[in-house]
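agent> Task received from the user: take the single chain below, predict its 3D structure, and emit structure tokens. No templates, no multimer pairing.
agent> Plan: (1) validate residues, (2) run structure prediction, (3) serialize to tokens, (4) report one or two observations.
agent> Step 1 OK, no nonstandard residues flagged.
tool_call: predict_structure(input=
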Amino acid sequence: MTAAIRRLGVVLALWLVLTLAACGAGDSTTVPTHASTRPKPVVHVPNGPAPQRLVVEDIREGSGPAVKAGDEIEIQFFDVNMRNHARFESDWQGDGVVWRVGEVNLSKGFEGGIKGMRIGGRRKLIIPSRLAYGTGPLLYVVDLLAIK
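)
tool_result: status=success, residues=148
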């Protein structure tokens, strides 16, 4: 009888740990899948001259609240310099990157391009050089993992 009670106690403790882990901490909203399990995007650099304005294209729309100034967000991104087709600061491994919109030194094009995204969304941004640190034009594919 004592062994059965111990087994029941272990099962209940494990259930409690898993339940609390599933709930998470704080009031953040997150994508249901772990960042490292999300497929890396295939990026095609368009031919021809780069656009002079910011291009924002939703590849997959998310749900829930939209990103706005002041939000702390977690994203994964893949980027390509459209001049030489080289990657320069991609983050597509691990848990993503956390930024506060409007408080970090992001390019104007990147920041403008992620506003309005919803959790779980994937967005392609084509950022003209004047809005991209002067190094562009840049092409980003961004997944919004969380608004914290």
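agent> Step 4: summary for the user.
The longest helix spans residues 2-23.
agent> Done.
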